[in-house]
Amino acid sequence: MEQMIDSGVLAAENEKRAPALEQDYNTLGEKLARRGISIDDVTSKVAAYGVAVPSWGAGTGGTRFARFPGAGEPRHIFDKLEDCAVIHQLTRATPTVSLHIPWDKVDDLSELRQRGEALGLGFDAMNSNTFQDQEGQEQSYKYGSLSHTDAATRQQAIDHNIECIEIGKALGSKALTVWIGDGSNFPGQSHFTRQFERYLEAMKSIYAALPDDWRIFSEHKIFEPAFYSTVVQDWGTNYLIAKELGPKAFCLVDLGHHAPNVNIEMIVARLIQFGKLGGFHFNDSKYGDDDLDTGSIDPFRLFLVFNELVDAEGATDFNPAHMLDQSHNVTDPIESLMRSAIEVRRAYAQALLVDRAALTGYQDDNDAMMASETLKDAFRTDVGPILAMARRQAGGAIDPIAAYRASGYRQKVADERPAVTGAGGGIV
Amino acid sequence: MEQMIDSGVLAAENEKRAPALEQDYNTLGEKLARRGISIDDVTSKVAAYGVAVPSWGAGTGGTRFARFPGAGEPRHIFDKLEDCAVIHQLTRATPTVSLHIPWDKVDDLSELRQRGEALGLGFDAMNSNTFQDQEGQEQSYKYGSLSHTDAATRQQAIDHNIECIEIGKALGSKALTVWIGDGSNFPGQSHFTRQFERYLEAMKSIYAALPDDWRIFSEHKIFEPAFYSTVVQDWGTNYLIAKELGPKAFCLVDLGHHAPNVNIEMIVARLIQFGKLGGFHFNDSKYGDDDLDTGSIDPFRLFLVFNELVDAEGATDFNPAHMLDQSHNVTDPIESLMRSAIEVRRAYAQALLVDRAALTGYQDDNDAMMASETLKDAFRTDVGPILAMARRQAGGAIDPIAAYRASGYRQKVADERPAVTGAGGGIV
Amino acid sequence: MEQMIDSGVLAAENEKRAPALEQDYNTLGEKLARRGISIDDVTSKVAAYGVAVPSWGAGTGGTRFARFPGAGEPRHIFDKLEDCAVIHQLTRATPTVSLHIPWDKVDDLSELRQRGEALGLGFDAMNSNTFQDQEGQEQSYKYGSLSHTDAATRQQAIDHNIECIEIGKALGSKALTVWIGDGSNFPGQSHFTRQFERYLEAMKSIYAALPDDWRIFSEHKIFEPAFYSTVVQDWGTNYLIAKELGPKAFCLVDLGHHAPNVNIEMIVARLIQFGKLGGFHFNDSKYGDDDLDTGSIDPFRLFLVFNELVDAEGATDFNPAHMLDQSHNVTDPIESLMRSAIEVRRAYAQALLVDRAALTGYQDDNDAMMASETLKDAFRTDVGPILAMARRQAGGAIDPIAAYRASGYRQKVADERPAVTGAGGGIV
Amino acid sequence: MEQMIDSGVLAAENEKRAPALEQDYNTLGEKLARRGISIDDVTSKVAAYGVAVPSWGAGTGGTRFARFPGAGEPRHIFDKLEDCAVIHQLTRATPTVSLHIPWDKVDDLSELRQRGEALGLGFDAMNSNTFQDQEGQEQSYKYGSLSHTDAATRQQAIDHNIECIEIGKALGSKALTVWIGDGSNFPGQSHFTRQFERYLEAMKSIYAALPDDWRIFSEHKIFEPAFYSTVVQDWGTNYLIAKELGPKAFCLVDLGHHAPNVNIEMIVARLIQFGKLGGFHFNDSKYGDDDLDTGSIDPFRLFLVFNELVDAEGATDFNPAHMLDQSHNVTDPIESLMRSAIEVRRAYAQALLVDRAALTGYQDDNDAMMASETLKDAFRTDVGPILAMARRQAGGAIDPIAAYRASGYRQKVADERPAVTGAGGGIV
Does the N-terminal peptide bond of residue A102 adopt cis geometry, omega within 30 degrees of 0? Predict the structure, then answer.
């Protein structure tokens, strides 16, 4: 396996932190043992948990106002793959990359697949793009794509999605994620029902092209880029889509795509109950689809989502896809993705610590106090040593950000990759 | 028919306003004729449109902090019926009353039915109550009702709902509305899935007792009285309920029961498309379930809801139930209900004026500007003369509030009904 | 005066609509006369009301996901001025243009001023830009501008604002609007107090450079482009700024910059009461800072804002600045700006119709019903004929959008101005 | 000191948990020592931190729909004091009680004061009540109190507040908290400015009666019980009040009284910066003013508030008042108050662990990643052993809820105090 970060640097960084980790891990192990929990079992489960990295997350994001690129911005998917390899090398938590077409389009797919293999990375769900117009594209998506009033535009969007499946097949992917920006900006602009019927019809054409061992994920979002109505606006509509399409169709939950105050973990539970939870786009947010680092704003909410997932673990056919989806405007994208991968594992580890037998008892007895404290006890546990041990045992870094900074990787790629000037946002 | 408001007073009030009304009506008629619309056709449709009044709306409402009763508070369902008769006499828009059990329970149902008939009032959907404990009740609803962990409590709630059906049958009602406050206040308190399974099982028992020509309406609400999770939290869950139960089950939309910013008219369109729109609880709100007078905060939103309803008019089996559901804390409840009935008709009349052929053309052409202006043109039309003419032609008041005030009804009932002192709210 | 739209086309369009307008105006005049209102007085007031157009509004806007340019996109401020001249010629409501520096920077300011004069346009408030990096700029605004931790970056932002004042002086502007994107994306990233102190200090330097007859407007916004905290996040902070700076400093209210559910008209009232209302950026929104056409989502809210303004009219030193600020993603920007200028005048006309003496009486008597109906009566009045008559009497169009479409202006500029390809949004 | 919980029971409970606590405390001590922190210093600070308990919190709360009382509901302030004594005995964190007049009115104030002393409890801020009508009250607060249009009603509200000051003086309190429900339900109902002027005038009368060593706290709230506008709607208005009144006037922040998504910790920072932070009403919420147990929904937000407080510690005249204010609808109020007192201390302890020198460095360098991780590191630390040790060393319980349950206190008071039947909510 090609290593992006020098193994000597990594070893030296780990060595500095190993004694404290050993001590903290043992101490935590004893504490958990008092609760009847084997820390090593938890560590094993955490080590087996992976989350996909979005290829586009490797570049600096932006807003409609501006984008402020950093040093060493990746120029294409091969650069992005190397950045993703850094993330996985240090965290051991991100074994796959999710591609976005056409941003990641290449001439030679086998070269891409081999590059992934060389870097120890597989390919997760494919992402299509019908929310932007590409140079030379015949039909414009200004007024929609899969739900457009014009049949030729819909067909172009269908064809593009099928092309994404074809690319994915060559890369070993097993899923297609469809997020569209279709909607309207003004009351009256679109007829809700006819628009949704067109969407469903188009999705059925894509579904028909889906291989038997693939899944298709539709993604809901309350608003943006449409500001009055959005075709797939919430999980209710998303569920109807998955139901209409068939057994290979599932709902994707992006944590930042809901109305204010909405109880997301309950949506997760409902989708699990009705067999339609496809997976997640993890990130965090305070206002809208802020796409901040996972767990950075409301870590308890993230834990509550994982509480539902752990509760459902072991059920037949329960296999949700986990992916980060963030926009890194003020941090080094590699650092943000590493931190977020760690946070997802943290929430998972905390959720594994919930005493579910006790919880069920409190729930049955309507002991609201002890039921909620049971969750809180798990959440409050500082599982950092478990996460660090899982990384270290798998050859990763005890402290990935420190090791990354020590490695000088960002400076190295900044030297190799030309500087990018800040592109203006969409407002002008 | 027994008239609550003296016909002489009413006639005198109308006489004062008739000349101006004639003039305004004719003028508007000419204006609409230029658009190819017959004003009399619109007036006829408006005249045929009725909305149910909730019996509990006749009393002054309150908050958890306090309730400030007004003069002449109704003491029981017979007083409430008389107040409702005033509303219908003056507006001609509220031919039915919706009862709430046990608040409106009586010993002699045929007496109640006859009293309704004497006052010209029918009985709309029955409303059950499992969100409060009643004196002498065996099981408490403190921790839920239809979804309670305890089977005996669920059975009590089921039985109560079946009792409501029985009462409704005796009164000529054809529907049962089920709103429950079940949910949880803290993460962990309830297991989302098991709780919802218990709810569905209980609802199936109620559904089994539903006569063939009845419908059952479930109502969703994002929060309150539960403050962390609510069993029927949104239209997605509500749709699943209606789907699980069967063809007589439908979703009720209360305009104040959604998360901030949510596009309610799109939810209405989705439920229509999938055959599960049961009807409405009309009111208006700015923050939460504020239960303010319909159309008082965002009249354009109300219009957009009616735009969807008029768009769907004529479809097979499309027959949603319309009811007001408000809390009148600072106004005379009779006045607020009259005004709200007028506002609902106003939105209906405006929606009837939408040039749907032109709208479809603009939508197909993605002419967002003209599509949205087409809706706005209809909304901006001052349809007041149509509403007034529909009332007057049916024997109601040109200006219901003025006629009501002139009648002295409130003072009369204040003299007859004992004064009520302000009950404290729920906070202590 | 140079006319962008052929006067013959305009006259022909008006001729078609004049008879109906005359009739509707007279009819409305009679109706208002019954309420004791002279329609001509209202028309005069409306005719005297103008709103500034933002130069950047003439181009198609976008989101962080994409921008879909239309035909004939303006290439520079001279093109934009011509588009603005169309808007003013047809609506007679937009006598001034608000510039944005550096987007509208030119070498020869007197040429620009003369071009404005030739087109009958004056120059409203100047807008500085420290939320984007410009080619060749020494310091980056990635981590802030006026509140940046680095003194050199703050100085650069100060200098830029002073440059905007200098440009404005040459053009006859009398105000500077300062909106910054400064804030943070993560808890801890910025120290709230030190950051705000730096901002205040920088603003004091700008204030010191302000001519005596100028005003400076600061603008608050809850979020975007910063997603955890924003330095000027709400009117409370904005008020403190205006207070700290001095008598020439005022608060600017953008209707889309508040938290969900916030009562904006009350903020307007508070700022008026404490002498710090500087003016408005008008637009409409459903979710966040959606920047939709004014009045397109919640026209009653717009009316309520104008109700406060009319209520305060006549007070000493009450002279708020009115400007549109929108992003036109799916409409022709000229059409959207014309419509919005009309809507602002509509809300103003409706607010002029409020019977303020009656309203005060109802308020004093706590007659919530009649007080709210008094506002509603004014809002429901279809003042379209007043607006059209005001335009026509001033040489504008009875139906500006129809006249604009008839003129073929968009096609003409599409032929003259090179096509623009869709720039990608900020996300990649 | 009179002990409500048997010391033997408490000792036995503590004995069971002491060995594990010792071990965990020592382990944490070593871990903190590695960061250069003395655990005992933190424990001392935590031990010195107290939060006031609201007397009304001892009873079961409710909603406008219903109230479900528990066993042993306190009948009057003397019962409530005993319950508060339990809370303080076990947590050692709640040395004072905050009274609400007239709910806690007694004939003999010295008896009340002595009872407090006997139980080891002092008296915190006094709370007035002008949001409910009391039996026999001359003027009604239906349409407001301190801002009412009627002078006699305002005077009655002023007199009541002055009476609260008098009572407080007799009890040793040093502050008056004024929260009013005044506002309006419909646009137009109230004139914003005249209403606020009346409020300010009334508050000045109360302020004039304030002893020199007292403070007056005004409290803002976005909505409820008024549903369109609220006189003191946000911190901006609240700041203006404190500024207008004078140096003894400060703003009280209730964590549940803000619009959705609002950054509360920044409001705290602004009020500190401008010298007007009076204190807190702690609770947690997901939707509105849910009044849930502190830290139960978003513990990280609570931590961020304390991060601001610790950052400001040591500044001159910085002495905010801390009080719980919750509604306990589904839990034993004593348990909820104990848990919340613990959570407040937890957030305080975590905030004490923030490496502020490092944080300042990261902030100055715009190292958003490390700055936010610095806060997170502190938040993730499981400070439970510190909290438990602080309680134990002060004679409290290692596990207050377990000790409380073991004591049988609730059953004891259930036997002594008559059962209460569920009062209906405010809706009927």
Answer: yes
